[in-house]
Design goal:
The chain has helices spanning about 5-30, 50-70, 130-135, 160-175, 205-215, 240-250, 295-300, 300-325, 400; strands at about 1-5, 35-45, 75-80, 85-95, 95-110, 110-120, 135-140, 180-185, 220-225, 255-265, 270-280, 325-335, 340, 355-360, 370-385, 390-395, 410. The chain has about 400 residues and is an alpha+beta fold. A hairpin with a 5-residue loop joins strand 10 and strand 11.
Length: about 400
């Protein structure tokens, strides 16, 4: 992965304007201050004579302009086959937060609405404020297959593949910031040796998208337990001498735990987070005292305590990986201006919330590719909320912007 420096990006795009903003910041603000006052301009097409909708879209475009001036991150990924770049992906992101927004001018130019505004920017992550910060993203936790099931015979922890995701689910549920669904009996990694390598260059898994659609989940957590092996298999013989040596502690009784954790975007199947976790600990369980990965005897061992710490780290990483992602839910029905969404009060949606609508596109010439989302330049405002779904209205009928079942509603 290549990273383009923030300084190069901003100087190339904004040049002199950013330079003078920097001088103003140094001259007028204390060193410890984090705010910068910037101006931005946005445009939007006026559709069906709806000036209010165009004005709001132009305002958001202006805010995006300001955010990118202040802080931007560019990630590029290239796939090279036989020395030739065959696929390329570019992602631009910002974690800026706007404060004290002031509209400087609004003007209609032909069929365009032009808005210029001024905003104070701070470095705090945008995911900590706004509507999306209080909404609960839906996460499904799938099974973690054991790469070597024979290693789990000692201590009877062969249930780890289903028990581990259940423990992750409990930890994530306790945060109170996610809707967590259990899919621990579902194994997404059919090739556990090479997991999570899959069909496409971006490592996405098509069966992830299928599971996400079935559960209406925005993210899918999966993984592989690569090792629960003891470090010295010879120390675990059944002879009297072997038992005596273990009792005296003169042999290596440590055990390893190695697992890969992956978090996938449910819509595209692309990975959002991936990491390997490893630990070791003393396996000092008495014979028959441990019967299961979540048993009391397991947790009393030094090994169990070490694994518990890894599970805590995993849950923290999952929560962090999805925290700054937008809230996305599926459109389940469109009737004229009325839109039904697959999320409701359990996700934190309330009457008056506004979500942007994105059309889902697939192309016949690339049947295996992930769908693309395109901004419809329309939004839906929620007017009635139920536990697992909600209804709202668009400013125009769905046919005018081609919004239909299976499209997505997004809150940033």
């Amino acid at each position: 992965m290549k990273r383009i420096s923030l300084r190069s990006l901003l100087l190339a795009r904004y040049g002199r304007r950013l330079f003078f903003h920097g001088l103003a910041l140094l001259a007028l603000m204390p060193v410890a201050a984090l705010a910068v006052v910037l101006e931005g301009t946005g445009h939007a097409v006026i559709q069906g004579g709806n000036l209010e909708l165009a004005r709001e879209e132009a305002r958001r475009a202006a805010l995006r302009d300001v955010a990118l001036q202040y802080e931007a991150r560019i990630d590029s990924r290239d796939t090279v086959t036989n020395g030739v770049v065959t696929e390329s992906e570019l992602v631009v992101a910002t974690s800026a937060q706007a404060r004290s927004i002031e509209i400087l001018s609004e003007r209609q130019v032909g069929n365009l609405m032009r808005v210029t505004l001024r905003a104070d920017m701070s470095q705090s992550a945008s995911c900590e404020v706004g509507t999306a910060a209080r909404l609960k993203k839906r996460v499904a936790v799938a099974g973690f297959p054991l790469l070597a099931p024979e290693q789990a015979v000692l201590g009877g922890i062969d249930d780890a593949g289903e028990t581990l995701p259940q423990q992750l689910r409990a930890r994530l549920q306790q945060t109170g910031r996610l809707e967590v669904l259990s899919a621990s009996t579902t194994q997404l990694m059919l090739d556990t040796v090479n997991a999570p390598t899959a069909q496409a260059f971006d490592n996405r898994l098509s069966n992830v998208s299928a599971l996400a659609r079935d559960l209406d989940a925005q993210f899918v957590v999966a993984g592989v337990i690569r090792s629960v092996a003891v470090e010295d298999p010879q120390a675990w013989g059944s002879s009297v001498l072997d038992r005596l040596q273990r009792g005296l502690g003169v042999v290596n009784r440590h055990r390893r735990f190695v697992a890969d954790l992956m978090v996938f975007d449910g819509f595209s199947g692309a990975p959002v987070y991936q990491s390997r976790y490893a630990t070791r600990g003393l396996w000092d369980a008495a014979p028959a005292s441990s019967a299961g990965f979540d048993s009391e005897g397991f947790h009393r061992t030094g090994y169990g305590e070490a694994v518990t710490g890894v599970l805590d780290d995993m849950a923290t990483a999952i929560a962090a990986a999805v925290r700054c992602q937008p809230f996305i839910t599926r459109v389940t029905r469109v009737e004229g201006r009325r839109v039904t969404l697959a999320s409701g009060s359990t996700a934190g949606l309330r009457p008056g919330d506004e979500l942007h609508l994105y059309r889902s596109y697939s192309y016949f010439d690339t049947p295996g590719a992930a769908p693309e989302l395109k901004d419809s330049q329309a939004s839906v405002t929620i007017n009635s909320v139920h536990p697992d779904f909600s209804n709202g209205e668009m400013p125009m009928t769905g046919a005018l912007v081609n919004i239909q079942r299976g499209d997505q509603a997004v809150v940033w």
